[in-house]
Amino acid sequence: ETGVTQSPTHLIKTRGQQVTLRCSSQSGHNTVSWYQQALGQGPQFIFQYYREEENGRGNFPPRFSGLQFPNYSSELNVNALELDDSALYLCASSPTTGVQFFGPGTRLTVL
Amino acid sequence: DQQVKQNSPSLSVQEGRISILNCDYTNSMFDYFLWYKKYPAEGPTFLISISSIKDKNEDGRFTVFLNKSAKHLSLHIVPSQPGDSAVYFCAASDNNNDMRFGAGTRLTVKP
Q1: Using one digit for the tens of pLDDT, what is the confidence trace for B37-90?
Q2: Does A60 touch chain B (CB under 8 A)?
Q3: Strand (E) or helix (H) holding A91
């Protein structure tokens, strides 16, 4: 059984650019959540997808968007990048209800 | 708004002694609480959870206590081991899709 994987591990972008981060869920999990973790803070909930539909959203602007695919893998897209978007982005998968299991994260740096 | 708070950014204990990590929350709708630990360059790893219908859950060296009236939970690790050194996050949710995290407590267990 493979765990949650994320790609890329590191990414450097400049202000105004767009970025796509990817996540493969743990086998058997149909729910995926995305979190942003800024330095020195806990993860902040961005949104969750369940069976390809958005199933909850945190306090993030619309330029943060996502997709979940039929195989339950997922993407996080961020448009018009700002310096404050620099953070560790974490993906977590879970069964319909239950504990969320996290991937190793993608470190995004916006210059 | 910070609905989950970990007021101690760091904790240092001697190997073999008890580690007690604390967490407070403000939202009375939270009904599921989790502890994750995080090593550098890795995603958070699930440690232990408790639902609001219980006041204690134990798993080996780890015990989580929940005091609903005080909106407080704690994680006890006994005996502490050097390998327990990590950042510990407390998390809470009311519907499993919007999980709120504290800012974390860095535990150092000295040999």
Answers
A1: 999 888 999 999 999 999 999 999 999 999 999 999 999 999 999 999 999 999
A2: no
A3: strand A87-94
Structure tokens at B11: 């904790």
Locate B74 and state its tokens. Answer: 């704690």
Is residue A90 classed exposed, middle or buried when 0-12, 13-18 and 19+ CB atoms within 10 A define those classes?
buried
| Helix locations, A2-87, DSSP H | none
Q: Please report which helix (H) or strand (E) contains residue B5, including its range.
A: strand B4-5
Whether B103 and A42 lie within 8 Å, measured CB to CB? yes
CB contacts of A107 in chain B (<8 Å) are none
Q: What is the mean pLDDT of residues A59-85?
A: 95
